[in-house]
Amino acid sequence: MSQPPVYKFDVQVLNSEAISPDSIVRSPRTFKPQDLLAARQNMDIICSSPDPAPAVAELVEFILGDFFIQAHRTGLYNRQKNLWESLSKVTSVSVFQLRSGIFKRVPVPLFDLHLQDFRGRPFILGHLVDPTFEAGKTSSETLLKRFLRRAEKLPGLTGLFFCCPAQEAQSLRTAVSKLTGGDDPVGRYEARLPEPLSVPLNLVGLGPPEPDRKPGLRSAVHLVHPDLSAIKRIRAAAVREE
């Protein structure tokens, strides 16, 4: 990105002696759901920029907190192991706002999130289509393809997150499933893109609170693909592999 980040989030562990995401990934089978919540409470996510866009802050929180917890609870971490483990190594998130226009480039409510390690190296990428974005002739599928092309330019990635309003995410779900091997019983949870990326792509919806949300999970942001409603099938696949 040639432009400087519009937002910067710092991720810190409050108490190095207590349960943390790093201790969870070292021995995931020894920890219970309440331990995952304790690990999240031991992590501080602070934006150094005043008043970040609400949807950006929610997506950062979802990826580092809710997705990490949900993947452990459902067993998805077995299918997306490298991505899940690398979430514990994120120390900062740089958020870049995209621009549009030919003669005069103006900011649009589209954001790339670079989740970085302690060296400042991005190894997880996210993209947010803010609800205020007026698509016009630009479909969510087009925005996804452009995001994937940008991701191809960065080496060493472990995973991607694409987030858009819930209704758009549902419309995009079939295309993402087809792109990531959704017809395969195991591949649908690995959600792995073909070469050259060959990393998981998780589709995230941004929408209203859900009445049946699970404890510890945010309500406005939720995973659309992979579909984790069939939790037993994920766990059975993990058992067969072991």
Features:
242 residues, alpha+beta, 8 helices, 35% helix, 24% strand
Write the layout of secondary structure elements.
Blueprint: E1 7-13, H1 21-26, H2 33-41, E2 43-47, H3 54-74, H4 81-87, E3 92-100, E4 106-116, E5 122-129, H5 140-151, E6 159-165, H6 166-179, H7 187-190, E7 201-206, E8 221-225, H8 231-241
Helix pairs in contact: 2-3
Q: Which value, in Å, is the CA radius of gyration?
A: 17 Å
What helical percentage do the residues reach?
25-40%
Mean pLDDT equals: 89
**What is the H-and-E element order?**
EHHEHHEEEHEHHEEH
- Give a quick account of the main beta sheet: strands, pairing sense, barrel closure: 8 strands, mixed
What oligomeric state do the depicted chains represent?
single chain
The percentage of residues in β strands lies in 15-25%
Extended strand count: 8
Distance between the termini: 41 Å
Please tell me about this protein's structure.
The protein has helices spanning 21-26, 33-41, 54-74, 81-87, 140-151, 166-179, 187-190, 231-241, and strands spanning 7-13, 43-47, 92-100, 106-116, 122-129, 159-165, 201-206, 221-225. The protein is α+β, with helices and mostly antiparallel strands and 242 residues long. The model is unreliable at 212-218 (pLDDT under 50).
Précis, in short:
The chain has 242 residues and is of the alpha+beta class. 35% of the residues lie in helices and 24% in strands. Strand 3 (92-100) and strand 4 (106-116) form a beta hairpin.
